């Protein structure tokens, strides 16, 4: 039993951690509470189920930190990126995934691995012995949350994460909407037409904002506070911050030309992105919401082209729990008070599918190293994964710690480069070139140690 790695949670992070450790020759047990214990957001019992967006965001590994993280995970033989690539959907410069076949493929590949088994049932305590990774994500069960809270001696931090609605394509009025990626971005016609656009004039936009502000909203439970992560704000919260906020966010009208009215510049544009390979479902980009279901249908049908929209899923809201990792975790993602336990994924205070998977990759490799008798150090902070894990385990201010996406602001600067907006392209390329070289060196070193 001491040579077995136990992973609690079969989401993105847990799945990636299991794969990495098993590929290094370690026996792994994934403990997954679903389907015995359900959550409001999950619909299946599959591992690596996607419950919010179906996008892994930018796939540009030269100019974008998220794309660089994709590159690093691919270089490390990650299962999440391999299956994302295998189930890719057109999305301009982004990596969007056909969510159900993706999760089914990850599940099948993990369960077919000779060194991985899955145990279904809820883990409610933190174990004193053995090698463990807790990757329970934003929907950590109440019982386990209480155990973590008791161990850390601090109140759990939480914010509310909102889910965007999904629309049936055949209910969209294409005489008003059109297909185009912003600035026609993409190498193929399919990529250049990956987004569905619904235009608004000024009057329609103002009426839409009025309806958002007046709509019935979901109530918070007693003792909960609405501390949102800025990267996933509900649209009505954005509207409350100013009537023009949405026009400069998810509804910005730039880089688009309406073929139905090419001489008319839209005041605002709502974009939808394909959500499955068949093209029958589209999610409304950036439209996370905490409106009640009835209000959602009424408000979203004010969008030109969506007057008769049918919804495969309406938006939702849930409590998202994460650790104050700079205080609680060491540089190798171990709980300082119980070094036999690591945490990985969104519960560590990273935000997004890719970042969660990346932290699973690191935790899986480092835990496997412990079992194999090697001491695997974290990757250097010049890499995307290294920058992110450095931030959450000590780089961030514990007093103001909030969930973080990977971004170039977390990277050590490259000396001698021009600052400001004009020098950004060269600066980002220098960051990614350095990161790729350092990541290859780290992979080579850790693989050599594992073999030795």
UniProtKB/TrEMBL annotation:
The keyword Coiled coil does not apply. FAD binds at residues 9-14. Pfam families: GIDA. Residues 6-373 form the MnmG N-terminal domain. Keywords: Cytoplasm, FAD, Flavoprotein, Methyltransferase, NAD, NADP, Transferase, tRNA processing. It is found in: Cytoplasm. Its cofactor is FAD. InterPro entries: FAD/NAD-bd_sf (IPR036188), MnmG-rel (IPR002218), MnmG-rel_CS (IPR020595), MnmG_N (IPR040131), TrmFO (IPR004417). Its EC number is 2.1.1.74. The keyword Phosphoprotein does not apply. It catalyses: uridine(54) in tRNA + (6R)-5,10-methylene-5,6,7,8-tetrahydrofolate + NADH + H(+) = 5-methyluridine(54) in tRNA + (6S)-5,6,7,8-tetrahydrofolate + NAD(+); uridine(54) in tRNA + (6R)-5,10-methylene-5,6,7,8-tetrahydrofolate + NADPH + H(+) = 5-methyluridine(54) in tRNA + (6S)-5,6,7,8-tetrahydrofolate + NADP(+). It is an enzyme of class 2 (transferase). Its main location: cytoplasm. NCBIfam families: gid_trmFO, PRK05335.1. NAD-binding protein involved in the addition of a carboxymethylaminomethyl (cmnm) group at the wobble position (U34) of certain tRNAs, forming tRNA-cmnm(5)s(2)U34. Catalyzes the folate-dependent formation of 5-methyl-uridine at position 54 (M-5-U54) in all tRNAs. Belongs to the MnmG family. TrmFO subfamily. This is Methylenetetrahydrofolate--tRNA-(uracil-5-)-methyltransferase TrmFO.
């Amino acid at each position: 039993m001491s040579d077995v790695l136990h992973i609690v949670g079969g989401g993105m992070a847990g799945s990636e951690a299991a794969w990495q450790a098993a590929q290094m020759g370690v026996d792994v047990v994934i403990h997954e509470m679903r389907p015995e214990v359900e959550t409001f957001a999950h619909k299946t019992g599959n591992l690596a189920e996607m419950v919010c967006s179906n996008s892994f965001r930018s796939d540009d590994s030269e100019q974008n930190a998220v794309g660089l993280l994709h590159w690093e995970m691919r270089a490390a033989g990650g299962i999440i990126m391999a299956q994302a690539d295998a189930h890719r959907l057109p999305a301009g410069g982004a990596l969007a995934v056909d969510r159900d076949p993706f999760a089914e493929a990850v599940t099948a590949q993990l369960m077919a691995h000779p060194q991985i088994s899955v145990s279904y049932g809820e883990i409610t305590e933190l174990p004193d012995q053995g090698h463990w990774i807790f990757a329970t994500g934003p929907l950590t069960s109440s019982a386990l949350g209480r155990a973590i809270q008791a161990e850390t001696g601090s109140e759990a931090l939480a914010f509310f994460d909102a889910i965007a609605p999904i629309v049936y394509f055949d209910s969209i009025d294409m005489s008003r909407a059109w297909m185009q990626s912003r600035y026609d971005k993409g190498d193929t016609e399919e990529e250049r037409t990956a987004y569905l656009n619904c235009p608004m004039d000024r009057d329609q936009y103002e009426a839409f904002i009025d309806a958002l502000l007046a709509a019935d909203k979901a109530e918070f439970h007693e003792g909960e506070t609405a501390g949102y992560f800025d990267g996933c704000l509900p649209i009505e919260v954005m509207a409350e911050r100013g009537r023009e906020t949405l026009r400069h966010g998810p509804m910005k009208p730039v880089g688009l030309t309406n073929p139905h009215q090419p001489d008319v510049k839209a005041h605002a544009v709502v974009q939808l992105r394909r959500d499955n390979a068949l093209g029958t479902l589209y999610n409304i980009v950036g439209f996370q919401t905490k409106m009640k279901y009835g209000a959602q249908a009424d408000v979203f049908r004010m969008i030109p082209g969506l007057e008769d929209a049918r919804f495969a899923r309406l938006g939702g809201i849930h409590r998202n729990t994460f650790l104050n990792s700079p205080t609680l975790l060491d540089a190798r993602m171990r709980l300082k008070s119980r070094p036999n336990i690591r945490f990985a994924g969104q519960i560590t205070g990273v935000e997004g599918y890719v970042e969660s998977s990346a932290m699973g990759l690191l935790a899986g490799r480092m835990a496997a190293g412990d079992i194999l008798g090697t001491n695997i150090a974290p990757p250097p902070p010049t890499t995307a994964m290294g920058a992110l894990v450095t931030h959450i385990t000590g780089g961030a201010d514990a007093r103001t710690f909030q969930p973080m996406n990977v971004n170039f602001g977390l990277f050590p600067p490259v000396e001698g480069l021009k600052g400001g907006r004009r020098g950004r392209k060269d600066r980002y390329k220098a960051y990614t070139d350095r990161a790729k070289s350092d990541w290859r060196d780290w992979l080579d070193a850790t693989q050599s140690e594992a073999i030795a």
